[in-house]
Amino acid sequence: KLFLMKKKLLIFVVTYKASFRIFNLIKKIPFKKLSKFNYQIYISDDNSDDNISLKYIKLTKYKFGSKIKLNFNKNNIGYGANIKKCIKYALKNKYDYAAMLHGDNQYDPKYLSNMINLMTGKDKYDAVVGSRLMNKKSALKGNMPLYKYLGNIFLSTYFNFFFNTKFTDCHTGYWMYRCSKIKSLYSKCDNKFCFDLDLRLQLVEKKKKIKEIAIRTFYGSERSSIHFIYAIRFFYKVIKFKLFKKI
Question: Would you give the DSSP letter of residue 223?
Fold first, then answer.
């Protein structure tokens, strides 16, 4: 009976070409601190070509392997579409909360227990999101590239100006949601890298309660080529939503 009464938490991991880091990420999840919840780990790989099946196989033999479910997309559907697939899984299986991690191990799972405590506390937040820039020195110590550091501050200030918010990091991918609050919102979001922005815009417009917490991150040697394109789309989407309330 006690098990049936536990709130359900889905921790989903979106990953692409990061299988060499996935095991270390899973080992960092604070399983004991999450034991008061009925939780599951859902790993969704977006059709990586890095010998993925062999590298994931040891996850099923891990001591918490029974809590882990693996999904391999047959085609590369994109960052946002992969998140949608995970949220759809959460809703279908009646999870109360869903938390997102990235397979590249950039976001430390140790913050999950703090996030879920905030979600279930007296303030009843609709979403909790990790900020790399609440502690700016920490971001640089975590090897955040300078161009990304400065760009993040500039674009977050731009967002805050239009929506009268006080976010310190509008580009993080470390989220925990109350599933009932995003049920009608997530499907409208971008299938690519602006998913998190689209969801934030809708949550702000609907006056949902979002709590930022300070997090530390790890940046590896990989570099993405999409940052300039993302910045342009960010500018466009923010002003479009402000004027027309359209994603």
Answer: -
Question: What is the rounded CA–CA span in Å between residue 241 and residue 204?
Answer: 11
* Amino acid residing at 143: N
Long-range contacts of 153-160 (CB under 8 A, 24+ apart): 155/231, 155/234, 155/235, 158/234, 158/235, 158/238, 159/238
Report the C-alpha gap between 73 and 64 in whole angstroms. Answer: 23
Closest CA to 99 of 9, 16, 185: 9
Q: Are the C-beta atoms of residues 161 and 239 closer than 8 Å to each other?
A: no
Residue-by-residue DSSP string for 200-218? HHHHHHTT--EEEEE--B-
- Cα gap 204→209, rounded to integer Å: 8
Dihedral, CA atoms, 43, 47, 49, 51, nearest 10 degrees?
40
Angle, to 10 degrees, between the axis of helix 227-244 and the axis of helix 146-163? 0
Q: Evaluate whether 190 touches 108 at the Cβ level (below 8 Å).
A: no
pLDDT in tens, 29-82: 999 999 999 999 999 999 998 766 667 878 888 889 999 999 999 999 999 999
- CA–CA gap between residue 216 and residue 193 (Å, rounded): 21
Tokens in use for 130?
A: 């990790």
Q: At what angle do helices 195-205 and 79-92 cross, to 10 degrees?
A: 60
Cα 126 from chain centre: 14
Per-residue model confidence (pLDDT) at position 220: 67
What is the spatial distance between Cα 126 and Cα 141, in angstroms, rounded to a whole number?
A: 30
The token duo for 107 is 């976001």
What is the length of the chain?
A: 247
